[in-house]
Amino acid sequence: MNNANFETSTLNRYGEQGQIPLRKKRIYSLNNEWYFLTREYGVFGPYPSLSKARQELKLYLRRLGIVKAVIS
What is the pTM for the complete model shown? Predict the structure, then answer.
């Protein structure tokens, strides 16, 4: 995992004010397997693909109430 990777955002998260901090990328690949990081519980994975890791991260965030499910 490359610790120098950061993603930028133009919006504060809920409850944040002021300058937006640099944020580490949550999803990374190691030995052709995919993982995601959380502040609360550490590393989740491995997943066989980037799309599966993204899907599981979204599910995790919904369970915590951080992201609401979008009904289409």
Answer: 0.61
